[in-house]
Each structure stands twice: as C-alpha cells, then as structure tokens.
Amino acid sequence: MFELSLRWNYVLLRALAVIPSDFNPLILSDMATFRFELDHRPTRNKTYNLYLMVTVGKKRTKKKTGIQLKHIDDFNPSCKGNNWIRANVLDAKSLNEQLRLMLVKAQETYNELEDDGEVSSARIIKTMDKEIVSPSFLAFARERAKEIEEEGGFRNMRKYVGLCNKLDAFRKKMRMHDITMEDLTVELLTKFNNFLHKWKNEKNPEKLLHPNTIEVQLNIFKTLVNRAINLGYMSADKNPFLKFSYKGVPTMKEKLEMAEIQRIINLDLPKDSLIWNVRNYFLFSFYCAGIRAADFIQLRWRNVSSEGRLTYSMDKNGKFRDIVLVQQALEILKHYFRPDANPDDYIFPLLDNSAPYAKYVTIADKRTITPDMRKTLYAAVSAKNALINKYLKKIAEKAEISKNVSFHISRHSFAKVAKETGLDSGIVKELLAHSNLATTERYMGNFDTQKTDNALINLFGVVEKPKDKKEEVIEALKGMSPEEIAAILSAIKK
Can you state the percent helix, strand and coil of the chain, rounding each to 5? Predict the structure, then answer.
C-alpha cells in the first residue's frame, strides 16, 4: 500500500511540476531499476551509443537514447544529480535534460504497466518507443560543426556555427527548451525563415541578412537534416525540406574587363614593394585560369615542372590541376626564383618555410595534420588572403577601377575574358576545374552579347556611324560647280 501511494504521489507531484529537476530515483521499487549505460564498442562513425537499461524482476532490456558520444570519458555513470554527460561536451545541459525526461518517462511507464499487472522490462521499452523522446537537433548540429572543425574545414565550420547560433536565438525567441528532431516541421522552417529575414547583418548592422546568405544557411540546415536521416535519427518521410524550399536572388559576380586588367598592368609601382608584389599575385592567378587564394598562397616550387607547367591539387576539393604556364606567368615567376630554393619552398613570400605546417606538402600529408596545426595553417592563409585583398583595393583605386576588386575576382575575370575571346564553355569549365557546367556559366555570366546585338540591329535597321567633319565637307561640295568651289577656297584664304 505504501509503494502504491508513493507512486501516485510521484505522478501527482510530477504533474504539478514540483519535483526538482535533479530528482533521480534510479530505483523506484524492489522490482524495477533504470540506469544509463554506454556501449564501449564504437559505431561505424567512431562514436559510442548511450542506452537506457531497464531491469524488472532480474530481466534486463536496453533502449537507445539516440545520443552518441565521441569519447568514452564523456559519460559519467556515477554522477551526482542529472549530469551523466560531462560539462565539456557540447550541449551537455540540453542532452542531460533529454536523459532526465527519458528517465521520468520510464518511471511513469512502469507505474502504468504495474497497475495493469503486465509489467516487464520489454513491455516498458515497447511502450516508451511509442512515445520516444526525440534527440536534440541543435546538439546534433553543434556536434557536426565540431567534427568539421576537427577535419580542417574551418571556413565551412564557421557557416555551421553561424546556423547553430541563429537556431539558438530562434529557440529562445520561441521560448523552446530545445529544438529536437521531432520539432523539425515545415511550420518551424517557415518561422525560422521569417526570423532570418529580420536578422541584422553582422558586417553592416544597418542592413539585414542578404537573401543569398539566408539561402546558404537553409542549405546547411537541409544538409544536416539529410545527415540525421542517414544516421537514423529521424525517418526520411519526416524530412520537412520535402515540402519547404527557399531561393535567394540572382546576383552579378564582380569581374574586370580586359581594358581594366591592362590598366592594372600599366600601373607604375615601386619594384619589390608590397603593392607591386600583390599586383603580381593577382595577375599570376589571372594568367593561370584563376587560381583560388588558398591554393596560390600554398604553391611550392615542386608544383612548377621543367616543361613549364603548373600542377597542384586544389585545397577545396582535392581535384588535380595541370595547366601550361603562359609567358606572362613565367615572367612573374622569374621575380621569385632563387638558385638555392628547395622544391618544397613556397613560391611566393607569404608563408613561413620554417613553420611546423610547412613540412606537410601534399593533400594526403595535410590530412594527417593535427586539428590545432590545421587551424594555425588556416589562420595564416586567411591572414595573407586578407592582406592581398587590402592592397588590391589600393591597386583598383590607382587604376581608377570602381569595382570591389578581390583576389577571387581574378577567377571571375578569367572566365569573362575566356568567353569573350570565343572559348567553348566546356573548355572554360575544365580550366576552372568546376564539377558542372552550370557553375562555370554562373562565373561567365551573360558575356556573349553578339547575338542579341545583331537581333536589335536587324529589328531596327543598321545604325549608321556618325560622319566626321571631313566627310561632311566633301558631301556638301558634291554637286557644286568648279567656280563655286574656287570662290569658297578664296574666301577661306582671306
């Protein structure tokens, strides 16, 4: 009778929300125990599954909690209070709350089944599975951002962290304790989309987020949802992106005309000065089909062959590039070659040859760099890229170019010039090492206006060139007599 009263008092107190959050009765009665256990066998993803262990009458059944930890020590089986997952784990507070609610649900399920006289560990798990506690999507997203950082994708990682921060701000505004997998609906995505459209631009607080930035954030959101489905955290038919989509706005990528490139070439700059070197960097990229900044900064002399070719693997996707060095590019290289240069030395004086990361040359080597060293290399490359872009703006000003010139514009400008000189789009695609033609066409833009020009001329007639003054005089003299022309010439002499 005492146990029955205790159970009903617990249910009543729970309903009134007066049981403290750190209440942790692992043993409800002599017949049932509930505790969490970590499987020490790693999954294919090198994580460890956390289970809820239910024991009734000495028969034990386990249930997945939906939580996977990266390290065995992240779990504390003998914790005080509800701190099973240690504080150093991302979103530990949210995950521990998820576990606490699961434990409460297990205890409530036991009470209900025992009252019916059909209690067992297997029936408790089966009943709970009908009302499963949904894993935290926010915790899942943050863990993925951490994984990307450890893999060396720091630029990509910042986008994921940005999404997590915006999701957390959205959660707080909506007064949600967490954003779980179960919360992911078309309605939530619609509200989050509206929320993003009111988010201030961090670089320019007077403006709101650009629609294309919102598209990037929602694309990352979609990628995370697909990953959660692939890992079994949610079913494919629950994917809210099956019915929700968002598109940004078309934008024109900044590019330079060949005449503007020539103005940069013609600038009188102090030889060997920083601004002089930066011009060389930009032009070398342009002459080599638009090398990306990260690849350019990390070029080594081993990437230049004796046959006058440049071979390297792209840092972004690992694709191999093999292009001929045109004469203009070779002339630039002459400024930086030293007889005592080693094959593994950096070509351009941007990174330190003696730095610890410098000994990691190939893409395969770089995959073995520790996360901290990878972060150091990324920071060094980013700093040099920022320095180059700073001086390119000064170059643009000197060349009287009003466009926002950056290193990446060399890539867009190459695509533009290549198209205008008649190169086939497929060849330009290969030179830029794009995966698909659509990307190349976005780079090239609508440069080929010859067809539309001809259509307008045919429609409205040939546009005559304005005549110069000499032609006008000749036209006026036509039909005059020799005497009249002689009189005009005599008047001019006076």
Answer: 55, 10, 40
What is the pTM assigned to this prediction? Answer: 0.58
Q: Is 210:264 a contact under the CB 8 Å cutoff?
A: no
What percentage of residues in the chain have a pLDDT greater than 90? 36
Residue 420 CA, chain-centre distance (Å), reads 31
What is 258-444's CATH number? 1.10.443.10
Crossing angle of helices 425-432/437-444, nearest 10°?
Answer: 100
Q: What is the pLDDT of residues 307-352, one digit of tens each?
A: 888 888 887 777 788 888 889 999 999 999 999 999 999 999 999 9
Question: Taking the CA atoms of the chain, what radius of gyration do you get in angstroms?
Answer: 34
- Nearest Cα neighbor of 279 from 351, 331, 210, 341 is 331
d(CA 96, CA 242): 31
Burial of 154 (0-12, 13-18, 19+ CB in 10 A): middle
Structure tokens at 199: 């988010």
Check pLDDT > 60 for residue 132.
Answer: no
Q: Which of 112, 114, 109, 102 is nearest to 124 (CA)?
A: 109
Calculate the CA dihedral of residues 272, 275, 278, 284 and round it to 10 degrees: -70
Residue written as token pair 């005080």: 80
- How many whole angstroms separate alpha carbon 293 and alpha carbon 274? 17
Range(s) of the chain covered by CATH 1.10.443.10: 258-444
Query: Residue 55 region, left (φ>0) first, then alpha (ψ -120 to 50), else beta?
Result: beta
Instruction: Round to whole Å and give the CA distance between 53 and 122.
Output: 11
Record: fold of 138-242: DNA polymerase; domain 1 (1.10.150)
**Residue recorded with tokens 């010439």:** 489
What is the token pair recorded at 185? Answer: 């609906």
77, 84 Cβ separation under 8 angstroms: yes
Residues of the chain with CATH 1.10.150: 138-242
